[in-house]
Design brief:
Chain A is mainly β. Helices cover 0% and strands 52% of the residues of chain A. In chain A, strands 2, 4, 5, 9, 10 and 11 form a 6-stranded mixed beta sheet that branches. A 5-stranded antiparallel beta sheet of chain A has the order 1-3-8-7-6, with no helix packed on it. In chain B, strands 2, 4, 5, 6, 9, 10 and 11 form a 7-stranded mixed beta sheet that branches. A 4-stranded antiparallel beta sheet of chain B has the order 1-3-8-7, with no helix packed on it.
């Protein structure tokens, strides 16, 4: 089983739609989780950290389910500018690496159409 | 302020050649990271520095890859005897201190160097 798995998509949705991305991670001891956004041919940028209690930032909501080793990202009222690849990320401390080692999923591509 | 910068932005080389990729982190950031991203994949960790020392080099694929950060600021990733499989975007990131998680220290990425080995 890969360390971090995501549905690669693409997800093609109309403006205003609600879309959800899911991600699973392999090590139950993992402590830190993030969603990064990557625009085409650009560098990844932190979208939000994922906390145990779940967290929301405007139209974006992140959830963590430790029992199922599952992370989700919900985008409400999607905008054209949300089109990007969304990368699920786990801190590598429990995968033979260190706190400085981020493990990225392959990413889920989102395309928001007018 | 200035973000992470990387040079060159593109590098085309021939199989067997030696290449150096440079990263200039955000001023004051003590931690520096190198990742590699192949087409259709997420970034893959290579190495990270805390100050001048390599704190974790577990991601370096083999001994053809080496990185230095002699003064605790600029870092150079060096690849010897390049192979076609080394073709990828090499991303550098920096953060104020080590790691991300409990400390919440975000890793800021540079634009990457696109390496093509012919």
């Amino acid at each position: 089983r890969k360390e971090v798995e995501q549905d690669p998509g693409p997800f093609n949705v109309p403006e205003g739609a609600t879309v959800a991305f899911n991600c699973t991670y392999s090590n139950s001891a993992s402590q830190s989780f993030f969603w990064y956004r990557q625009d085409c041919r650009k560098e990844p940028k932190l979208l939000m950290s994922v906390y145990s209690s779940g967290n929301e930032d405007g139209r974006f909501t992140a959830q963590l389910n430790r029992a199922s080793q599952y992370i989700s990202l919900l985008i409400r009222d999607s905008k054209l500018s949300d089109s990007a690849t969304y990368l699920c990320v786990v801190n590598g401390a429990h995968y033979g690496g260190s706190q400085g080692n981020l493990i990225f999923g392959k990413g889920t591509k989102l395309s928001v159409k007018p | 302020g200035a973000g992470v910068s990387q040079t060159p932005s593109n590098k085309v080389t021939e199989k067997g050649k030696y290449v150096e990729l440079r990263c200039d982190p955000i001023s004051g950031h003590t931690a520096l990271y190198w990742y590699r991203q192949s087409l259709g994949q997420g970034p893959e960790f290579l190495i990270y520095f805390q100050g001048t020392g390599a704190a974790d080099d577990s991601g370096l694929p083999n001994d053809r890859f080496f990185a230095v950060r002699p003064e605790g600021s600029v870092s150079t990733l060096k690849i010897q005897r390049t192979e076609r499989g080394d073709s990828a975007v090499y991303l550098c990131a920096s953060s104020q201190t080590m790691g991300q998680g409990a400390w919440g220290n975000e890793q800021f990425f540079g634009p990457g160097t696109r390496l093509t080995v012919l």
